Amino acid sequence: MQVFTYAERPDLVARIDEIHPVFAEFLHHADVTLLHWAKLRDELPELQLLLYDDERDALVGRGHTMPTSTRGGLPGGIDDMLESWFGEGERPEPDVLSALVAVVDRRRHGEGLSRLLLEGMRDLAGRAGFSSLIAPVRPTWKERYPLIPFERYVRWARDDGLPFDPWLRVHARLGAELLEVCPASLVIEGSRAEWEEWTGMHFPEDGPYVVPGGLVPVEFAGGCGSYVEPNVWMRHRVRAT
Length: 241
Known about the structure:
Number of helices: 7
Helix content: 25-40%
């Protein structure tokens, strides 16, 4: 298994659609990410990762990172970092590298591949001269408990003291510290018809609805649905190289 940056293997970037999708459809319709996500590949290819199974000639994962600043406190989350870097305002002077997302082909789950992507991100941070990698982590099992307050869920622990959530546990085993919740990391808004198309559900009246793949309910008001996803900030100390 090998990890490459987009800059190193543009031939593999062209095969990115080989990675079987893992996220619910509605997560692909956030306004800020729709506006800026492609710019990561175009402007920061050296900070985007590919996980390549050379034995099977298969692209099995991808990871995305970007520089950001913590001088005024932690960013607001994914939307905030993308808008701050690619929007119309002045770019912040970065002092850390932030992970954005790590995706492993659904057919290859359970093989420990997400750890390889995370280790690759840590290496990127070190090579870029940063002393830490931060991450707005999306707990993978939170969708099973959408009504549990996020602040409580991320503190759940097993008998051995490690986090209950498996993705938080991967970070913790690599030495990451849990910092704080970012309550509005990603915002997705749409009409009732759009949400029905994205989820295959019906939303007859206003109010909160639990949807497949959602960490928290979608709130409908005036016929429009708003999903405000919390993440939790974790920090990896790395050695600059």
